[in-house]
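Ticket #4471: structure export looks truncated?
Reporter: QA, pipeline team
Priority: medium

Steps to reproduce: submit the single chain below to the structure queue and open the exported record.
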Amino acid sequence: MKSDDLERFRTMLLALRRRLMGDVHMMTHEALGGAETDSGDNHAPMHPADAGTHSFEQEFTLNLLSSDGDRLDRIEAALERIAKRTYGICEECGGRIPKARLETLPDTPHCVKCASQLEG
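Actual output as written to the record:
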């Protein structure tokens, strides 16, 4: 892959990483009690339905955090592949990953064929 293409994908990955890290920071704050600080000094007991909703929202947020953490790991691996100049090469078959796929999923380590086989 050409140097200017590698730099364009590197810039794209860095922007995606910054955005995800901001999302992770915000969700971590909310999952670890940010919602309780909104209630101020209110010491009224929580209604059971509210407790269930809060628990569901907290679990949902933690699942999103896990997913974003996995994506951040893939972004870091893609940045390492750019540094090694192996970006755009499928880690499974060694074939070329089309630019159109990389523009949609810049952190993907696999071509479409291998990704389909690995998911199925």
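Status: closed, not a bug. The export was complete when the record was re-opened. Leaving a note from the reviewer for reference: Residues 14 and 75 are 8 Å apart (CA to CA).
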